[in-house]
Fold:
Amino acid sequence: MADKPLSFETSDEEIGQRLDAFLAAHISETSRVRIRRGIDDAGAKVDGTVRKASYRIRTAGQCVEFILPPPPAAGPKPEPISLSILYEDDVLAVVDKPSGMVVHPAKGHWSGTLASALVHHFEKLSEHGGATRPGIVHRLDRDTSGAIIIAKTDLAHQRLADQFRARTVQKEYLAIIAGNPDRDRDLIDHPIGDHPTHREKKALRSGHTSSRDAQTFYEVEERFPGYALVKALPKTGRTHQIRLHLASVRCPVLCDKLYAGHSRLTLADCRTRTRSPQLAKDLDADTILLERQALHAHRVSFTHPISGEPIEISAPIPNDMQELLLLLRQIRPRG
Structure:
């Protein structure tokens, strides 16, 4: 821990405030997790007496001393992985995450993560999410590509996290789905909880202890024989929400192994589903058209955590999805 404590004097406006909230307000560039760790390590004194986080300021003029603990030493190893940066300023960035990249280290995925790339690329990242999630404000599934927000400071992270909790961050996804929805647009409103038998999956569940409300609005952008391109706007942010909700209307995300039952699309598969045997007749039937779930975080809109200005960032549709759409457009009915 640092040798010299930070020192603050309480004011009339702060009477009755909890000690942890008082310190968080005065040390805004540090995560609340780190401040709480310092308090738990007996690093906070009020008028010379060690106090707990729940202690409340009694009068103006009290002297609060705090020893800020060092940031956690453990974290992802920096790796020179290239990044596509869509937006960057002093406090945040928006990165276009490729499909196949895990966001942060976890069992079976200790290297090649977005977190390792971020640590290598940026000089500073927020600590608010913990040692293994530097700068990570939210997440995308491994095989989902697209825009993900990165925080460089703890203050920016806290304010962005507040926007996610308040559901004021607008996220727009594009998905190529197997099948065609009955409606051009609809709101899917089904609670999501743990799957009763499959640990990696989620399930539509009402009344279970793990169930949480979940809403996804979708709109059909283009229809093709056997397939469709849809825009999905999740109103909540549950794990696998878009994938599970679209599967629930019998239009799963293409190549979604968990919910569509397949992880690869070949030209032969496409010819069969579209009933177009002459489709791309110059290519071999075993040609792989897609081998990851066709889900892309296309656009994200939020309020800048410092300036308060509205921010809207778009991530271009990746090549594999673009090429499949070009192929499907060759057989789209005209008129």
About this structure: The chain has three domains: 6-66, 85-165, 170-329. Residues 138 and 164 are 8 Å apart (CA to CA). The longest strand covers residues 215-224.
